[in-house]
Specification:
mainly alpha
Length: 87
């Protein structure tokens, strides 16, 4: 009988941790859903940087094409009035 009292806390420990994980599960799932549905500041900054690099690349390409056309025509070209990368 004494052995049963000694083993009882060891056996109950597994049940308590299982019950605790069952109780925590809905909150963990809800937390994951919130994380997936929101954009972090770091992710927002990364996306903005990518957008600006693409815009600057587009502007650079258009300016090079404009300069090339002006050199070929050997005409007086006005200031560049094409796409300009901005916020």
């Amino acid at each position: 009988m004494k052995i049963m009292f000694i083993l009882l806390p060891l056996l109950a420990g597994g049940c308590i941790s299982t019950a605790a994980s069952i109780v925590k599960a809905p909150f963990q799932v809800a937390g994951k859903a919130v994380d997936w549905s929101t954009t972090s500041q770091e992710e927002s900054d990364r996306n903005y940087g990518r957008k600006m690099r693409k815009a600057e690349a587009r502007e650079g390409k258009e300016r090079r094409e404009y300069d090339k056309r002006c050199r070929k025509k050997d005409a007086r070209c006005g200031p560049y009035d094409g796409y300009v990368a901005r916020d």
